[in-house]
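In response to reviewer comment 3 from the previous cycle, which asked for concrete evidence that the modeling workflow produces usable outputs, we include below a single protein chain processed end to end. The sequence was submitted unchanged, and the resulting structure tokens are shown without manual editing.
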Amino acid sequence: MIEFVVPGEPIAWARAGSKGARRFTPSKQKNFMAVLAMYARLAMRGKQPLDGPVELVVVAVYEWPKTWSQKKRLAPGAAWKTSKPDADNIGKLISDSLNCLAYRDDAQVARMEIQKIYGERAETRVMLKPLA
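The workflow returned the following structure tokens.
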């Protein structure tokens, strides 16, 4: 199993930008992918990429909105972030970032769970485990 936590606000996959005919990956996204890869390398401690089917579990933690009172934070369901970005775009960015690093191909991700929640500190928690 591979587990790591990336501090800072989670970033989701976004369409490539363009300048005329030239296409590019947004810098915010590119930087987050590089940081994810760095934390994954540290967590792997020199191990080879996983073979076979894998499960990817992601918990994207966003800071509580500053305007929310303590009472609003304690309301049932308040901890779940139901606004943008979409959970599937968070998963796509992370699975793409770990391609050829934590596993040989992101097609190996046979099960994926993504949670978007509020917490005291923004971070992205990632866990990969073999399914076979």
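The radius of gyration is 16 Å. We consider this sufficient to address the reviewer's concern, and the full set will be provided in the supplementary archive.
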